[in-house]
Amino acid sequence: MVASPLAAVGTGISGQLSGTATGGYGLAVFFLIGLFGGAHCIGMCGPLVATYAERMETDDRWSGALTLYEVRQHALFNLGRTISYALIGGIFGLAGALLYGTVELAGVLGPIQGAIGIVMGGAIVVMGATRLVGYQQGTVEGIVAGTGIGSLFARSYTAISTRIDRWVNGVGIMGLGALHGLLPCMLLYPAFLYAFAQGSPLHGLLSLGALGLGTIPSVFLYGTVIQSVSARQRQVVHYGLGVLFIGLGYVLLAMGFMRFGITLPLPEIPYYQPLGPGGSA
């Protein structure tokens, strides 16, 4: 009897639990991307974060002292943002899993998964390379926002802007953070593509959650204390992200080529690898 795509997805997820949980190296890479990419987040979302800080009601604002209330609000904002990244990562992983579960019925899972890995890996490598050759903040985001997808981003930004005063002073600030997951972001694009190519909602959830956690220190400090990052610091971060993206894309490329019997050198590390037909890696 032929299993349905959803049943195949469920089997794949259960079989991948241990592989995902032990793939600490992969999650660490995503966390580092978020950590080193904090300056990018500040450059793109800093104005909104500064607006939140200005609109928060506190009796001690005249003294310039940071209050526990402000700390709580910024913590809730970053929690909402991280949860949003994780959920979207899980959705992309689920979309990939559904695709793989469908094509597996036709016996062509390996080649399809390999081709997607090569395309996605190549795209991530190109994104990384652009940062090493003089990436300009917001360039790619502007291009994507100008496409048909741009209307989604425009609606998200409008939703944020019209809800600031109502949500910023309560737990609703988590919703403002969650809406940031729908804004155009060069940091998130390759991560979402990677989650899709991996074809595991659990891995997508954990990976994007790790990336979100990595961005919290910079965004939290910006909202509560710093509120300024120099152009030079952002440029250094872009170079670092370029190297990380190229490395991440190379791993995905190598895993894609493996589906065609082509072996590229990879370090001996416990990275995540989706299951192939029959449950084998």
From TrEMBL:
Q: Name one Pfam family in it.
A: DsbD_2
Q: Which UniProt keywords apply?
A: Membrane, Transmembrane, Transmembrane helix
InterPro entries, A to Z? UreH-like_TM_dom
Keyword Transmembrane on this protein?
yes
Give the superkingdom in one word: Archaea
Q: Tell me yes or no: is rRNA-binding among this UniProt entry's keywords.
A: no
The Urease accessory protein UreH-like transmembrane domain is annotated at 30-250
Where is coiled-coil annotated? none
Q: Which residues cross the membrane?
A: 25-53, 82-100, 112-133, 171-196, 202-224, 236-258
PANTHER family, sorted: HEAVY METAL TRANSPORTER, HEAVY METAL TRANSPORTER-RELATED
Instruction: Please state what the protein is called.
Output: Urease accessory protein UreH-like transmembrane domain-containing protein
Question: Per the UniProt entry, what species is this protein from, by scientific name?
Answer: Halococcus morrhuae DSM 1307
